[in-house]
Every structure is written in structure tokens, then in C-alpha cells.
């Protein structure tokens, strides 16, 4: 057990959900990640910060094997989810991605109805036996994504007709619908206006009661607002990892200090 001091929100207990040890990533001859070791906690939000090109998204994509889809990419080292090696030959990456869901920078709903966007994952993974069960999953996922009240009367309308912030919450509902344990978010607010950003940030804070959440962000203010743990990456190294408040007020490494004070970036 590990105590996590939340940003002004008391203390919650959390255990490691994902453990990475000696992770290296190459894209062809580019050495993008160098010997990354980290433990990602359950029921906490972990922020990955660092200058452009430092490897944040690359590491995020290692956590649900999205890098498998890039031909030049080679991942070595070990990453476990609840102690199980996610790169073991017996692991089906499609099943893994149902457990470790992902939300992207730009909201990307399917060109289908709001209902179908959320129902798609449970259907292809065979998670329900009948329409009643599917309806329940769709409603529960939309509720968890704080979108139900806004869309319950127009579930048959196209998902692409929603506002940007609603579309991003729909994508979060879609990720939640397959019953994940971890949610990976790659700059989920970068295409949103300040009001939609605030709504998604509030949602991220609620999601940590059910999931382990990992967020890549370029905004240090956002990392400080939403996360309990922060990992600072620089030139492919995970330079410093710790409690968010500690990283922002008392960084141990001069490179972290230079970044948070705006001297590198
Ligand atoms: N598909 C790819 N093919 C080849 N090289 C890549 C690929 N994706 C990333 N890289 C390289 O890997 C390194 C890390 O990139 P990555 O996108 O992970 O960084 P990042 O910190 O997320 O950057 P940003 O904040 O700009 O999104 C960079 O040198 C980048 O050019």
C-alpha cells in the first residue's frame, strides 16, 4: 500500500496497477524511451509531463500495446498489469485494450448514433446477452462519463453532432463501456475550450474512484489540477516521478525544476 496525497483532496490509499521495468522503445534507429521504471497506482490519476518529443505518448501507448500497430516500433523490458506481463505471447492485444482503454487528443466518435458509439465495444467483445443488458451498459457508461443527462433524449442522434466537449465525454463513455480497469488519455483536452476542459477535468477526478487514470498533458496547470502522481520525461528518460504537489513545489532533479519554471520546454 502506498499513500497518495491528493491535491487538496485528502489522502487516498492506492496499490500499483501497472508496473514498468527497464522499458526501452525504438522506432527504427530512434531510441525514444530509455530504461523506464515506474509503478502506476490504482484509483489515482497519474500525469505524464515533459517537453515535446520526450516520449510521453510513446510510453502511454506501451501500456495498452498501441505501439504494436507501428511497424518500426520495438518495445523491450517488462510491463505488468496486476502482475501479469502484458507482452506475454498468450495476451491478445484486443482484449488488453478493452481492459486498458484509451482516449485520444481529438474527440473521434464513430459516424454512428450516440447509443451505437457506446454499444459498439460491448457488442464486439460479447459482453451482453440481450438488448436490456446492452441498454444498461450504455446508460451506466454515459452516466459515468457525466453525459447521460445531456443525451438521454437523443440517443439515436449522431455522435458527431455533439459539441467538442460532449464528443470527448462520449469517447470516454465508449472507453468505459468495455469495463476497463485503466484509462489512458493522450492530451484529452487539447482540442477543447476552457469550459469543456473544466468539465472533462472534473470528470477525470471522478473517474479515479473506479479506474487507474493516466493522462498525457502539455499543461502543467492541468497536471497540478487533476493528478495525484506526476512523471516528468525528458529526452526519453523518466527523470522524476512522485507526488504531484512535491514535483511542482520541490522537484529533486534540476531538469524537472528547469521544466516547471519554464526554462526548458
Ligand atoms: N510513429 C513514429 N515513428 C517514428 N518515430 C516516432 C513515432 N512516434 C514518435 N516517434 C519519435 O519518438 C520520440 C518520442 O515521441 P512522442 O510522440 O512519444 O513524444 P511526446 O513527448 O509525446 O511528444 P509531444 O508532446 O510532442 O506529443 C520522438 O523523437 C518522436 O519523433
TrEMBL record:
<dbReference type="InterPro" id="IPR017871">
    <property type="entry name" value="ABC_transporter-like_CS"/>
</dbReference>
<keyword id="KW-0067">ATP-binding</keyword>
<dbReference type="GO" id="GO:0016020">
    <property type="term" value="C:membrane"/>
</dbReference>
<dbReference type="GO" id="GO:0005524">
    <property type="term" value="F:ATP binding"/>
</dbReference>
<keyword id="KW-0547">Nucleotide-binding</keyword>
<dbReference type="InterPro" id="IPR005670">
    <property type="entry name" value="PstB-like"/>
</dbReference>
<protein>
    <submittedName>
        <fullName>Phosphate ABC transporter ATP-binding protein</fullName>
    </submittedName>
</protein>
<dbReference type="InterPro" id="IPR003593">
    <property type="entry name" value="AAA+_ATPase"/>
</dbReference>
<keyword id="KW-0813">Transport</keyword>
<dbReference type="InterPro" id="IPR003439">
    <property type="entry name" value="ABC_transporter-like_ATP-bd"/>
</dbReference>
<keyword id="KW-0592">Phosphate transport</keyword>
<dbReference type="GO" id="GO:0005315">
    <property type="term" value="F:phosphate transmembrane transporter activity"/>
</dbReference>
<dbReference type="GO" id="GO:0016887">
    <property type="term" value="F:ATP hydrolysis activity"/>
</dbReference>
<dbReference type="Pfam" id="PF00005">
    <property type="entry name" value="ABC_tran"/>
</dbReference>
<dbReference type="GO" id="GO:0035435">
    <property type="term" value="P:phosphate ion transmembrane transport"/>
</dbReference>
<feature type="domain" description="ABC transporter">
    <location>
        <begin position="18"/>
        <end position="260"/>
    </location>
</feature>
<dbReference type="InterPro" id="IPR027417">
    <property type="entry name" value="P-loop_NTPase"/>
</dbReference>
